[in-house]
Write a structure and sequence with these properties.
Elements: H1 2-26, H2 33-44, H3 49-68, H4 79-96, H5 105-129, H6 135-147, H7 151-174, H8 182-201, H9 205-209, E1 236-241, H10 247-258, E2 261-263, H11 266-275, H12 279-285, H13 292-298, H14 310-328, E3 331-334, H15 338-341, E4 348-354, H16 357-368, H17 372-394, E5 406-409, H18 414-428
Parallel strand pairs: 1-3, 1-4, 2-3, 4-5
Helix pairs in contact: 1-4, 1-5, 2-3, 2-7, 3-4, 3-6, 5-8, 6-7, 10-18, 11-12, 11-14, 16-17
Pfam family, one: Cytidylate_kin2
Transmembrane segments: 7-25, 45-68, 80-99, 105-124, 156-174, 186-205
InterPro entries: P-loop_NTPase, YczE/YyaS-like
Length: 429
Amino acid sequence: MNKLKRYIIFLVGLFVNSLGVSLITKANLGTSPISSIPYVLSLNFPLTLGNFTIIFSILLIILQLFILRKNFKLEHLLQIPISILFGYFIDLTMLLFSFVNPTAYIAKLIYLLIGCVILGFGVYMEVLADVAMLPGESFVRAIVQTWHREFGSTKVCFDVSMAVIAAALSFILAHRLDGVREGTVIAALLVGFLARQFGRLLAFVKPMLFPEDYKTSEGKVDQTTPASNNSDYVSVITIGRQYGSGGSELGQILADKLGYAFYDKEIIEMTAGTTGYSSNYVGEHQESLTNSLIYDLVNHMYTFPETESPKDKIFDAQSKVIKEIAEKGHCVIVGRCADQILKDRTDCLNIFLHAPLKNRIKRVMGKKNLTEKDAKQLILREERRRADNYHYYTRQIWGASANYHLSLDTSLGYDYVLDVIIQTAKKMK
């Protein structure tokens, strides 16, 4: 039943994809990179866009066979019927949109953007189904697996190559540029970005459609049951903190007082062991996002679960580590969006520690041996990165009091702050 649902969703997503491709094409501002070569050929030869899509897709499948060789599996042949169906879907939807012939530039742009939204939703549905890849994505994955390349940059090179080849074909066949325009660039930037947004906004859909994937080994759906706790205090304490507020140091003291395990940089080592990345790499890429919008646009090429971006892979691995730590109980966890990762637990006390900027500047100057100006710049930069990272992965505002049980000013003194936390931890138990 699970498999049947997945294939139904995939087929519906394939049709939605064809709707998006056709509307983008009918906008007459170019088409998506993967469809640019078939589109240019359809403008210069009798065959339809759908026909050339099928031919081009089969060519990509044959190239995969040569690239993968003995690693080419029988399941890769599933791309053939998918490509044929996709091609016929495109021809069908081109007929459905036969009335779309915009002449004004603003109308063309509107149709293009609507097409990008539809195509992005179609890609989201394919990801949700998680049963197959279209030949374009599968071709890139074959290159990555064979020559051990980074998926994101390989996907960018592939998209650029498709557009360049299409443009060259247009000049050769028609002596002018047709089929590759600003719409090609817009589609390349927006579609994957929109697919990721749908994935985050509709994250609740997958557990509803496939509850069997979220069952524990006992066969019951995981409701994040609180860990057993025989102490007088709440089992798990998470600490979010402003840079320079002393949150990590205070967390260690708190853990020592309660006899709890303490996790801060230790999570880096635990995460590195599950991702294949070095500890240094994980440390540099965790809790740091320069700009969430730019990150989303740049990393749109990481669409399918098998090709998750390094940053997302690290966050997912850290989330799993944090949940495993919490299941053991009796722990203090610093940072890494732990308050939101564990938000469904009833045995978790969430704290945010802050301090006036002047106090934090003074503290950072002493610890890092920096000038006042450099310390201030470091604090502001790190806080922007933490805030962007937190918002990107949780859709919440970093430091907002509604996300925490306690928000405390560490300039009031460690003894006072620790006393308030310990009393609260005892009361919540």
